[in-house]
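Q: What does the assembled structure look like for these inputs?
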Amino acid sequence: MPLTHVNEGTHAILKSIDGGRQLRGRLAALGLLPGAQLQVVQNSGQGPFVVAVRGSRIVLGRGMAARILVE
Amino acid sequence: MASTLEKTLTVAVAGNPNAGKTTIFNNLTGARQHVGNYPGVTVEWKEGTLRRGDLRLNIVDLPGTYSLSTFSEEELVAREYLLNRAPDVVINVVDASNLERNLYLTTELMEIGRPLVVVLNMSDAARDRGLIIDHHRLSQRLGVPVVPAIGNRNQGMDAVIGAVLEVVNSREHLPGPADQCRDAGPGPGGLSAPSRPTRVNYGPDVEAAVSRIEALLPDAPHRRWQALKLLEGDGRVLGAELPDGVRETAAALGAAFAAGSTDDPDILLARLRYEHIGRLCDEVCRQIRGNGAAALSDRIDRVAMHPVWGVPIFLAMMYIVFTLTFTLGNPLMDLIDRGFGALGTFITGLWPVGSPSHLKSLLVDGIVGGVGGVIVFLPNIVLLFMAIAVLEGTGYMARAAFVMDRFMSKVGLHGKTFIPLLIGFGCTVPAIMATRTLETRRDRLITMMVLPLMSCGARLPIYALLIPAFFAPRWQGPVLWMIYVTGILLALGGARLLRATLFRGENTPFVMELPPYRLPTAQSLLIQMWTRAWLYLKKAGTVILGAAIILWCLTFYPKPPVGYVPAGSPVAFGQMTDAGQRRAVELSYSVAGRVGRALEPAIAPLGFDWRIGTALVGAIAAKEVFVAQMGIVFAVGHADERADQLRAELRERYSPLVGLCIMMFALIATPCIATFAITRHESGSARWALAQTFSLTALAWIVTFAVFQVGTLLKLGVS
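A:
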């Protein structure tokens, strides 16, 4: 399911990213690549997301989060 | 002197954004640093020096990056520097409290083949997060020296320098790169100084592919890195000159990996790197208790990034910044103002009373009046930059970007574009350079185009002069705030317009790291304040001094002949006895007066007379010149309370509405020459800079016209 459906505080595992090479490369450098464990720190239903991954907090725009599939 | 025998080493400081790289750089170099440009790509960089005996270390602060790919201009700059300049040693600053992510860059730096020293920064923050890192073990496993340090307390710098020197010495005394493991005994400060970096093992399949590509490449320290990048399909490396057959081999091998896996080769390699790092971290890190610091940071964020409260909190922060800038700055400004007043009186006293000396007028009205009128605002500027430095240093800036994303995405940009816009409150020039952190050229251009609408520090003197002249004290704060908000709204509106016309298409995805909250160090704040104060004074002593002299000449010459009869005057200039009247005639007769009067038909609908016109033309050189020019036009350079006298003159001559209109026009119109130059430079074309100048001037005219005409109709602030 897309990351946008994940509630605040929930852990998830990144499955895939629907995006171009450039975008996937940037996310990979930040530790967001398939198989990575993440936790949704903030999802207020509007505005950007905050996820915790490998010890850092990453802000993802809502459009961006919709393109990240997790389980 | 040993200077001729001195040996110079180049040391590059690399690291993730927010890893404390600049603090380490500041600690190492102190105030001995300057801002330079990368030749060719001309991106701003900071360089400083450090002396140890007969050694001179040239230390370069590379832009903060997460990897050495080329997804942003910063990464490209860091990477090109490492490849082309081949620094003697690379210091990799690593945030110990965020080791896993930070080591990703470390693995890439090791592959690029320059001698490396890892600085495990913020080891105290790691401890606060309940994390213990065995740096000896980490050093052994990485095969490079690892030095723990606490940058913001200036701890561990000697050990860093020691490790750098050790690395240099060990290279010099070894016969060649093929020479294997040196004795891994303790080095300076009890460090182990292993000699050869341990490479990431990507597993048999990838390693075989890399070896095949490597065999085709000429020998170089970064050969393995080059081979890996070719396998990843890195556009830059593929685009460079390569031996025959390499591209084809790499493409075929990459395709084979892509076929056998769900990941592209670059993602596959990134994952293997992270797996390697994960094993490493498991081995060297011990989590001894829960992460209290992160919990606190999250708790603060629950308020600062609240979907409802985030925006009011941000606006309140801005309000506090601007109010403090004024209230704290005013006593200091009065002091400086008095100093220049006294200087003017002293110089005037060198001539007999009423002397018509041109030199006296140049010194008092032109230079002291012009330059002094600008230097007076130094406290405001320094305080504003300090506030921006605090917002950046604490990590709030990223929260502001988060909070503003909702609004920015409405105009088709993302939250990160708000950071350059915020820096624009300080100075448009560094703000335009800060647009480099944006990933797409489209977002960069839009941000650049609207950036001058964020009211910069140089426009503050104009407001600081005019607001107290026309508005009661209790209205001064709100008026200033309203001007800034007008700028922000126009910038957002302008961005929306550009997005809907010239730059259509989907929004750029918004991805940004949220650094934990930190207390900025006094040292970094002082260095930033000092740099800004110095740049401002330098500008006052060069551009503004020059402009003041030229403007003085333009307002002073040519002199009306004795027989000149101004329009509407019964007597000739020679017969006039009233000093004020004579001055007005002289000014009107001068070049500046003529230019101003030529402009008058164009600016009269805005409520401006030719005096304001001349000052606005001067403001193109630098916005502060407007104030200097008003001082010259009203020749108040010889009074003790100069700013107050100038305000009295302005109040007498103009209505509060005109005062507001001047501020509106100054806010929006014609960016200064420096902005023009940097826009041209950063956009790569004079067309964008010209478009910016003309459209903003047109916008200024329209807005000011509307404000003035509506205000006049409603009889608001006209008396």
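Chain B has three domains: 2-190, 204-287, 313-503+522-556+583-713.
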